[in-house]
Amino acid sequence: MSVAQQVFLRDAMRRLNLTRDVFATRIGVKRRALDTWLLPEGSQEFRAMPEVVNRFVTEIVENEALLQKYAQSAQSGPLRDRIAAEGKHQLISVDQFTRESVEEFCRVADQMQPIARRQKVSRVLEGAVLGNLFFEASTRTRVSFGAAFCRLGGSVCDTTGFTFSSMAKGESIYDTSRVMSGYVDAMVIRHPDEGSVAEFARATNIPVVNGGDGPGEHPSQALLDLYTILNEFSRLGKLLDGAHIALAGDLKYGRTVHSLMKLLSLYRGLKFTLISPVGLEMPEYILQQVGKHGHVIEQTHSLEEGVVGADVVYATRVQKERFAAEELEGINLDFQVNKAIIDRCGKPDVIVMHPLPRDSREGANDLSTDLNHDPRLAIFRQTDNGIPVRMAIFAVLLGVEELVQHSLRDVTWSPPSHIGPDDSVFHGMD
Ligand code: NCD
Question: Which of 246, 243, 292, 289 is nearest to 268 (CA)?
Fold first, then answer.
């Protein structure tokens, strides 16, 4: 087959909107067999599916009336044109996506997995240079964007911090953006002011990606969060339509939850439980935007009440850097997602997520480390997904996603079978 088996099957289930159980029943195979076909090709338990299944599934997918809309969208030009912002190939907000385009995007991310898992290499972006401009603190977003660009064969130039940039000398966003456009082929920008990345984007015609604009948006994080939820749900035999999502922590300034809630609202019949300390509630404009899609939205200040019945508990850090000192004083930050709460109040198959970084210091009110060996904790599967998702962002915005499949070569080195010392806990969960 021209695409990897895992990509083909995941895509078929997504398009048909079927859980693994229902899909297995529909094609007349045991769930266990389907699970082995869905494993990465390098894994020990992987099995190739019979050619007859390939043909049968292709037939179903092609004949499904539901798929007419996918066919239409596929005919209406490249994905980057359909998600364009003001006619440019840039990613500023999750508002640029529809359900169809985000699912097509996930398919591109799936195709990046052999590269992200260090089985294959590609040079489709050879010669291209990324400007990774971070005017605010970052570790994972900056490095994962850089690594994703490198893994497609490009090179990266970084800047970090505001103090060491020309903006500290009073340079405007317009000038910085225009100057950088002469040096690089794409830019990722993180900046402390909401709306600033859109301003960067208006001053250039090269692809710009929003790596976080103050308390505004963080679209690449939302895409990797959605991609993680879809993959975890596939493993658990659940659909995102109708799911119950709890968002907990600083919902006022947390840009990751702003983008995620809007992106999830593209799905049907969700229940959102918004759990925050008093004073850190989700902004009204997001509630209104999501409310228009007909989802149920509940708000509470009690963590214990809020996690009951949730399929996903997404915890966030209090964004202390965005508060005036006196503003923080009045807020009760006694708010820790930990094993005791998840055991007592959570569903047995809940998944616990966090965009990271979490504050792991003694007594911190953040996601506790006592869930570290619990398979319900998806945070490192989430960070790992940052690579294929950010590769997909570049591939789509630079228009090379169709070239990746044919550019793959085997890696020359031998990566460890589990990249993290605790990863065997999750082995076979994919
Ligand atoms: C988040 C951010 O910067 O918005 N981190 C990230 O990019 N993964 C969350 C945070 O800083 O709390």
Answer: 243
Same-domain status, 50 and 123: no
Asked if residue 377 and residue 246 are part of one domain, the reply reads yes
From ligand 1's centre to the CA of 257, what distance in Å? 10
Ligand 1: centre distance to CA 105 (Å): 22
Q: Which two tokens stand for residue 211?
A: 């790596």
- Same domain membership, residue 406 and residue 361: no
276 token code pair: 């925050």
Q: Is the CB of 210 under 6 A from ligand 1?
A: no
Q: Which two three-digit tokens encode residue 368?
A: 């506790």
Tell me how far the alpha carbon of residue 68 lies from the centroid of ligand 1, in angstroms: 38
Measured from the CB, is residue 317 less than 6 Å from ligand 1? yes
Domain extent at residue 342: 220-383
Pocket test for ligand 1, best of 132, 135, 141, 228 (most atoms within 8 A of CB): 141
By C-alpha distance, which of 387, 374, 391, 390 is closest to 419? 387
CB atoms within 10 A of CB 270: 22
Could you give the CA distance from residue 239 to residue 270 in angstroms, rounded to a whole number?
11
Buried-exposed string 254-268: b where 16+ CB fall within 10 A, e elsewhere: bbbbbbbbbbbbbbe
pLDDT tens digits, the chain, 430 residues: what are they? Answer: 557 888 899 988 888 888 898 888 888 899 999 999 999 888 888 999 998 888 888 888 887 655 655 455 555 789 999 999 999 999 999 999 999 999 999 999 999 999 999 999 999 999 999 999 999 999 999 999 999 999 999 999 999 998 889 999 999 999 999 999 999 999 999 999 999 999 999 999 999 999 999 999 999 999 999 999 999 999 999 999 999 999 999 999 999 999 999 999 999 999 999 999 999 999 999 999 999 999 999 999 999 999 999 999 999 999 989 988 788 777 887 889 999 999 999 999 999 999 999 999 988 889 999 999 999 999 999 999 999 999 999 999 999 999 999 999 999 999 888 888 877 665 555 4
Asked if residue 84 is part of any domain, the answer here is yes
What total of structural domains would you count in the chain? 3
136 with 251, same domain: the answer is no
